[in-house]
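Q: What does the predicted 3D structure of Fluoride ion transporter CrcB look like?
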Amino acid sequence: MDNQNFLFLSIGAYIGVSMRLEIVSIVGNILTEQTIPMDIFDNFIGSFVIGFYNERYKNRDFSSHLAISTGFCGCLTTFSSWIIGVIELANSEQWYNCIINIFIGSTVAYSGFKLGQNAEIEFKFPFHQKLIYLAFLKLIIFQVLFQRWSMIVTALLSPFGAILRFYISKLNHKEFPFGTLMCNLFAVWIAEALLIQKIHYDDNGKMIINSVLKGFCGSLSTVSTWIKEICIMQSIELRFMYYWISIFLSVYIGLVIYQYLP
């Protein structure tokens, strides 16, 4: 990855995580029902955008593709935060709510991606690389003016997760995305281990762990790319397998970590 691609991916990741934190903070004050994933809106928006822009810049403008698809959409959406919520429901044996949560989270992201694909056919939004810099500049000014220091720290961790995901995704096979699967699974397991250990730390330590959870783990995992890969798979059997392996292994190992990690 050259310097320009590195910069664009990092900026896209920073914007994506910052937007996710804003959306979740608003949604958290509205949603109280555990069956509805807290990240439902950011996962929908990210899946919509990746459906809209996925093929548009991939060949002619790889930097913009990285910024939008891998950076912004990959970090706006988060597999780890969603599945951690599912694991918490499973830990408390709320199996019905757990299944409904999985169904709603998957359906909303799938709907967002399909709507994005259809919108791409109907609309041609002119995009320029300068928009990425402009959005980043306005975002930084906003965060500093309103003293969103914790958000800035969290968002600064996002490029590490996004870049690691970019390199691990090179393990993706044309028939099965092993790289994305590994990113999502590792992010969930790391997040679950950190959550368990968080009780042993003081307020500053908990703040740091929260930043790692939302910034690094949230960016290492992704719903938008996951849903896109499921939708474009040629084999129905592989789609089914990829979906359930991702869900089952992340939840099952997460429960094992919860039971045995002191």
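A (community wiki): The structure tokens above were generated from the sequence. Residues 3-260 form one domain. The chain has twelve helices and no strands.
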